[in-house]
Specification:
The complex is a heterodimer of chains A (about 700) and B (about 500). With about 700 residues, chain A is an all-alpha fold. Chain A has two domains: about 575 residues, no CATH class; about 90 residues, no CATH class. A two-stranded antiparallel sheet of chain A has the order 1-2. In chain A, strand 1 and strand 2 form a beta hairpin. Chain B has a domain of about 200 residues. Classes of the chains: A mainly alpha (about 700), B mainly alpha (about 500).
Amino acid sequence: MHPLKLKQFNIWRRQQRFSIISSIIFVLTFIALGIFLTSLVNEAFRQSTYQTVKVISDYRYLKLLIIFVPVVGSLIQYIIDRTSDNQRDISIVFWTFISFILSLLLYPQALSAQTLRFDGVLLLGVSFRIDLVGFVMLLLTSFLWLFVMMYSHHYMMHEEHRNRFYIFLSITFSCILGTILAGDLLTMFLFFEGMTLSSFMLVTHGNQRETLKAGIQYLFMGVFGGLLILLAIILQIVLTGSLSFVQEQSLFTQIGSSAYVIFGLLFLGFGIKAGMAPVHIWLPKAHPVAPTPASALLSGIMIKIGAYGILRVLLSFGFVPIGSIGNWIDVEKLGLALMWLGILTMLIGVFMALQQSHIKKMLAYHSISQMGYIVLAIGIMAFLKDKGSMGFVGALYHIVNHALFKSLLFMVAGVIYLSLHNLNMYELGGLYRRFPITAIIALIASLGIAGMPLLNGFASKSLIHHALAKAIHDGPGSLILIEYLFIVISAGTVTSFIKLFGYTFLGPIRKEHIQCERSVKIMELAMAGIAIVIVLIGLFPNFVLDHLLVPALYQSNFDVHTIEKYLTHVSFFNREDLISTLKITVLGIGFFFAGVKFNLFHLHLPTWLNVEKIMLFPIDVMLYFYFNVLGKRRIDYWNNYNPYMEEDTSMSAIKKEGVMGRLFASANLMTRTYEASMVRNAALIYLLVLTLVVILLIALH
Amino acid sequence: MISTQFPVYLVIIPLAIAVILPLLKQHRRLIQSIVSLTVGLMFFLALFNWFELHSFGAYAYNFGGYAANLGIQFYIDELTSLLVLFILFLSFIIISYSFADIPHELEPHQFGLYYSLILLLLFSMLGMVYTNDLFNMYVFMEILSITSTAIISIKHRKANFLASFRYLMLSSIGSITILFGLAFLYMVTGHLNMFEVHKVIQSVWTTYPMNLLLASGFILTGLGIKSAMFPLHVWLPDAHASAPSPSSAFLSALVVKVYIFAMYKILFRVLGTMMVKGLGIDQAILIFAALGMVFGSIFAIGQRDIKRMLAYSSVAQIGYIFLGLGLMSEQGLAASLFHIFSHGLMKTALFLSAGSIIFATGKRKLSDLDGIGYRMPVTMIVFSIAAFGMIGIPGVSGFMSKIYLGLALIEGQHPIYLALILLSSFLNAVYYLPIIIAAFLKEDPENRHAMKMDPLPKRMWIPMVVLAICLIVIGFYPQLIMDIIEASLPAYLVG
């Protein structure tokens, strides 16, 4: 054979190897999932199944093993062979599959909610615990991660530094698993910080200026959130002496209003990661610039970890533990605050999403809005206290569902980007001709997120809606406003996805797109895997509810009567819900046509409405003032090194830069001024301090 | 007890060897082996002494057998011994690094001189830690300042001369101030031995508050200059930035800490907790510490030179140490001591990795460091770990210092300072993270992302890796150090 052809053949053959192994793992995954789901239904079958793998599933350190499998696997692969992309991706998929299987094997431990403690590590001891809530998150994470890894092989071939990307992806995966499996706040914080740092490398993978800027904002908000959580941890240790998620009696009843400070800090800290308004500002910048597999995972999993954190601390510290007769602290107030924050998040997310033309940006804003649903549901849970089981289930269910369809949508965007290098939806069209399977998958995901019956979004949204109805019934009258907003926002989501699907896949195809590359089979296979689950959940919404989510309720202090009344035999496809969905759909379609007619999708909001600007306004004004007063004559030398700024040092450029850049420049300026004048007068400073100290001492005396 | 005399040996051995070294002139290998043997030997002596102290307890060593109120006295307790151990351990690491770096920075004939200065530095530091006599402490302090000045100015450059001159001037002012303070103390008590002074002060401090106030004000300010307490830190950035990198590590990680340790002695052993609280000295310290934490970080943000930035960061970190000290509680003191250890390790790691970058590429401007992580991965990983410690990422020892400090602050009813610590941590992130980001994510114009091993001799990267491992181990198991500190504190406080 001709050498060039031989080379091509070899490449082809290697690529096929990845596809074949991935397909095998794909089949194995579904078989394993099938066995697991069967075992959920059939008690006897479960006993016998887990009896056969008893050695592993009863292994004490299995939780630790799951956390370290991804990172160790990827490091082993890196040490053995760092040149072959195929080999590495096969091993990544393989190790992810292993962690998926291990997660399934953890189910018996989740049922008994065991804790594994390592005393002495990090002073207070580190502990790992799995219960059913954690198990649902774990299953979701490892399942989704597996399919995104299958998908990313081909996609990442178009990016540089693949080894680095995969190593940091593995570290992020490990950290996420660690956050889920944490048994106390400190352990959770440990892995949470690790996740912030390692996922920063994923966001900034593109190495472009814009990417870096988005990444830096993400990083600093993450670090800030981390510090808030740290503050809460220190307060909590001193005031209550315990950080563990398992408590004998309610922790916060003795410490009065400090409890709300701690909760506020924790909500804000985790809320930053969860994309909760008004601290969501990093999200629409960071998610679109990351490579598609990363943005799928960031949107699908990582922001959920923030919500999981809020849910976890509320359940552990806000709720009275089962079997203890402690008093409830006023979680209603916290719940009410969370509800309003949630609805604000939803509103901002949907409104901004409607204005976007870039597909990934639009999806990022929808992530915010869907996180709003989750926060709202968590808020309802806290508001109704022990009767809030519906809010809890709605939040968890929506976490699962949103993870599935949002990562799928990002993956669809990635397929389009890979062949067309254009994600402006107004410049696309008719793509169903070139990407029929992708189009079907996109349709499934869009209908899912829009909450159409027979797809998964419907189930969780109706649950949240029911919970909201109950909260309105029990709560103050102003909550009715949330109800109206809820409907309008749901309709906005429908509009948004009509827009996305219509402009991208329907209509006439553009001339230059007729000959574009078709999508790759293995990517479509990976997407199909997630789409299948979406449809399955949509068709049998009760299955997940009855066998995974409702059992989780019994591990926390929820009122049994409420669970039995509202959740055990809920019929999703009832008349009221269907009619309300119909109303929402009609309203959404109406919005769409109104938007097209009156050109409402291209509103340019005034800059002062920017949330970032509003929040940082005081700091910004202060820094700007500092600049103008002190800095005008020193333009030449205060900007020698400023990583947060453009090269251009003129005054106009500085006006545009964010707070970070201005902070840096002000610090530069301050230092220069200080070093130029003050340091010369060291003796003066000395005298000043000496007199000050003496006066201070005498005065205090 | 076999090791009774060891503290004296520990002080005398470096002094003796320091005299010999300049005679050896160009024999680099010989000098290297002598110095490492000396420090190694000292380390083992100190270790042995430390072990024996556990079973025999603290003891006073009177020179020449004179009574305590007449002669010089060393007081050796577990905490002192631990600090000596730490000084020697860190010195050993820095010295083994410096064997590769110093020939690069200095002229060949200065090699022996440099190490005799280092040994003198060790001599005076150990003396200051051990001594229980106020005037003796002052003497050691003077030796330490002059040696530090020499170590800064050993590079024949204008910047070094300027910096060392400023340091010399300021620290002389500081010394004189301390001497004034000691004179006031002597005036009131008539003793120079710390225990004796303490005994007298206990009974008379209400009678002579003004004298004692002036004394403590003077001593506090003098030691504040030497240990770079915030507004008196003006000498520090220039001095630490212009000295050769191993010297910077010495100065930042150890010398400054020894002065702080002297301050502990003055506050806890001489004046006593009750008087310090009664006169409100702790409030003054807290205020200066908080100022230092915030402003040190802000000034660090404004730097262009990597070593200057690290020096300003030291100013901020010293603020943390003083904060723990200012609480005047056992918990605060423990936290402060823990931070002495953890900051010593972190700052050494940072200075050594900065030194490696200068060694390999000659770059020291922050804006030139783009893509350096691909040329020198080990160095930058060590740098990142230590920087994460400064920011307070869990898993590195700096995080635990923050936890300890935070706990002590909340216990001491000072939550506002906790918020300041977190602000300072955020500011640390503002200046440390861009370096890491630039190192690993930006493109080096000369070198297009071919990851390769650092162009460093083994002698340089092994000490850095050891430091990074220490940081992580202590980060996960802070009790390794904290238990010892907490166990030895009661003995120290009773004195």
